[in-house]
Design goal:
alpha/beta; single chain; 7-stranded mixed β-sheet; globular; 6-stranded parallel β-sheet
């Protein structure tokens, strides 16, 4: 079968590989669509310490059940599904307190084990979610990015009337925007350095957009909030150097959600944190958010296809990678169509 395989950093191709075997407790999924994520690009660049090569990447995907392993209940051949990539042990401390997304033995499909950029993928049946009837397989491939948004918002614990600021209007920033509006957050400020991205954010419901290269973001935000600052700040830009600005812009008792995996240090002025009693939270992957996102998609409160800028077949995936590497401003979400099921 065909698969997009990363053999080593910057060494990748669509290759012929052996189909996966279906173990007890697993389901075999014929992948219809898979989305390229920034973390896939980090793997290709060799910037992910968790990956062992060669690796078939892809953790955002949906398809149709092709076979089920021994002991699997509730799934049948032909079921339309999407897959939560988070695999946890169920026994360690994070798992015992309901935080399996930071399991001590965490595995992520597409990172620690082969993922969705292949014609067939074997996954734990417990990670498979049925699709509501009218959600297409293309939209379902984007459930996972929305779970990232749902997770960081839950980590920040919004209160009624809270204003949210999102740094970065890439795909994750736009999913946070849509999820925030779906959760009832009425005022959302979005910043970026690319006007086309800001236009997309405005179209999707942002109440204020600011180009941080052309405008004084601190001055604008403090004027907008009458000097109080913003209760909720989500860092979807993932630039460590922006942390001091986030601390200054946060309101007293504000919460800042961090999503980046950078190993670069950030300057943290402890006075800013203590005098306002700020809360800084990390957010990794998703903590069982697939049912919530599927429900919001089914109700029409999320518009995943609005994020899609390109659809390409698996055979053209290397050219899509090249575009994302050298012309990222041209793309939002790139969907890879893998089977005719899509």
């Amino acid at each position: 079968m065909k698969a997009f395989q990363v053999k080593a950093p910057h060494d990748y191709q669509v290759a012929d590989v052996e189909p996966p075997k279906v173990a007890a407790g697993d389901a075999l999924v014929r992948v219809a669509f898979a989305g390229i994520c920034g973390s896939d690009m980090h793997i290709i660049h060799g910037d992910n310490a968790f990956v062992r090569f060669p690796r078939i990447t892809g953790h955002e995907f949906a398809g149709v059940v092709e076979a089920v392993g021994e002991g699997v209940l509730g799934l049948a051949v032909g079921d339309r599904v999407c897959v939560d990539p988070v695999i946890s042990c169920g026994e360690c401390y994070p798992c015992r307190i309901g935080r399996p997304n930071v399991c001590s033995s965490l595995e992520v499909i597409g990172v620690h084990r082969d993922g969705g950029f292949e014609e067939f993928v074997a996954v734990p049946a417990a990670n498979v979610h049925h699709l509501p009837e009218h959600i297409g397989l293309d939209a379902a491939a984007l459930v996972e990015p929305y779970t990232i948004a749902a997770n960081v918002l839950d980590r920040m614990q919004p209160h009624p009337g809270d204003r949210l600021m999102i740094l970065g209007a890439g795909v994750i920033g736009l999913t946070i925007l849509q999820m925030a509006l779906a959760k009832g957050i009425e005022e959302v400020i979005v910043t970026d350095v690319i006007n086309e991205r800001l236009a997309a954010a405005k179209q999707l419901g942002a109440t204020q957009v600011l180009n941080s290269r052309e405008q004084d973001v601190e001055k604008e935000v403090l004027a907008l909030t009458q000097g109080e600052g913003v209760p909720l700040i989500a860092d979807a830009a993932c630039v460590p150097a922006l942390l001091p600005q986030m601390l200054r812009l946060a309101s007293p008792a504000g919460r800042i959600g961090l999503l980046g995996f950078s190993v670069q240090p950030s300057d943290l002025v402890q006075l800013e944190v203590i005098k306002k009693e700020l809360t800084l939270v990390g957010s990794r992957l998703n903590n069982r958010k697939f049912p919530e996102v599927l429900e919001l998609m089914a109700s029409g409160q999320l518009d995943p296809l609005a994020l899609v800028s390109h659809r390409v077949p698996l055979s053209d995936m290397p050219s899509a990678i090249d575009m994302l590497d050298h012309r990222p401003e041209e793309a939002r979400k790139v969907l890879i169509q893998i089977s005719a099921e899509g």
